[in-house]
Amino acid sequence: MSDTVAAVDWEEHEDEAQSAIAGAATPAELEEARVRYLGRKSELAQALRAVRDRETGMTLNSLRDRLETAVETRRNELERAELDRALTQEVVDVTLPGDELPLGHLHPITQTRRQIEDAFLGLGYEIRDDREVETAEYNFDKLAFDPWHPARSHRATFFFDEGRLLRTETSPSQIHALEEGEPPIYMVSIGRCYRRDAIDATHYPIFHQFEGLAVDRRITLADLKGTLLHVMRAIFGPERRVRFRTHYFPFTEPSIEPDVSCFLCEGRGCPVCKHSGWLEMGGSGMVDPTLYEFVGLDTEEWSGFAFGCGIERVAQLHYDFPDIRALWEGDLRVLTQF
Ligand code: DAH
């Protein structure tokens, strides 16, 4: 072994190693040079293992130190060069638009509700938000429902006890508005209502209504018609017409059901309007004087009209929504379409 050590010209060997290290252009080349000149099987390592005399040992140890330092220096240089390259080439362009975050949007019922609110705010109406837990007194008695009216049945309405229930309509707001304020009153009440309805494509036990009440001097049926025409046009387009059919509600006299001309077929007849050219839009009428008597208003001086309509129905027509159940299921694949 010592022959091998003696045979190597270590100065020449160092020159060769130093230029291999300094000439390494990549970390892989540098690693190759390190293994070759400093690795376990390198001539230097073998010589160090075989060395017997102190002087040669010191010479070879300091040669190893110098080569190790050279490898370290070159490694730092290569790393810095790589960093410089990355900093210039892999620059982040802060002016590029970022990835778009998926934004939510309003539920179709909320959109419809706001559209209705806007139409009434434009007419100077006040928007009310009344209680969903009502008393039978406000939901039925003060609205002149007969004691035998089927809506009072526990099978039709969600009762908590004899006196308290989930409101079946927004009409109790009429009484609250009359009791709380002095005429002239122009209000719209919007919110949830509840009925024990079997679920199908157009019915759900929870639904929304908007309810209007206008009480002033010399209010006539023509005012009701004009108001509904304005609102229906705001919702379904400027070409819409409104017509009335006689009906019965306990708290209006006369009671009338408004229809709006079908916006899908322009009144010519289509499956949505059942080929009649008209769409039914809830109930309305002139406020029955009995209600004014309940709240102590002079029926000679004041008159008014009221109307109520389901928001789901408006939304279904407006967005061409085939099944009301989708409004409650929260399925984003459906809701994001509206
Ligand atoms: N509350 C009635 C219903 O749910 C709708 C209604 C009819 C409201 C006539 C009114 C009205 O304000 O005047 O069927």
Describe this structure in words.
The protein has 338 residues and is α+β, with helices and mostly antiparallel strands. The protein has 13 helices and 10 strands. The protein has helices spanning 2-7, 10-23, 27-38, 43-50, 54-89, 108-121, 136-139, 172-180, 221-236, 289-295, 311-319, 326-329, 332-335; strands at residues 126-128, 133-135, 164-166, 185-194, 206-216, 242-247, 252-261, 278-280, 283-287, 303-310. The strands form 2 sheets. Strands 1, 4, 5, 6, 7, 8, 9 and 10 form an 8-stranded mixed beta sheet that branches. The protein has a two-stranded antiparallel ribbon with strand order 2-3. Strand 6 (242-247) and strand 7 (252-261) form a beta hairpin. The longest helix has 36 residues, at 54-89. The model has no long low-confidence stretch (mean pLDDT 92). The protein binds 3,4-dihydroxyphenylalanine.
Please outline what is shown here.
By secondary structure, this protein is α+β, with helices and mostly antiparallel strands. The chain has helices at residues 2-7, 10-23, 27-38, 43-50, 54-89, 108-121, 136-139, 172-180, 221-236, 289-295, 311-319, 326-329, 332-335; strands at residues 126-128, 133-135, 164-166, 185-194, 206-216, 242-247, 252-261, 278-280, 283-287, 303-310. The N and C termini lie far apart (87 Å).
SSE diagram, text form:
Blueprint: H1 2-7, H2 10-23, H3 27-38, H4 43-50, H5 54-89, H6 108-121, E1 126-128, E2 133-135, H7 136-139, E3 164-166, H8 172-180, E4 185-194, E5 206-216, H9 221-236, E6 242-247, E7 252-261, E8 278-280, E9 283-287, H10 289-295, E10 303-310, H11 311-319, H12 326-329, H13 332-335
Parallel strand pairs: 1-4
Antiparallel strand pairs: 2-3, 4-5, 5-10, 6-7, 7-8, 7-9, 9-10
Helix pairs in contact: 2-3, 2-5, 3-5, 6-9, 6-11
The protein binds 3,4-dihydroxyphenylalanine.
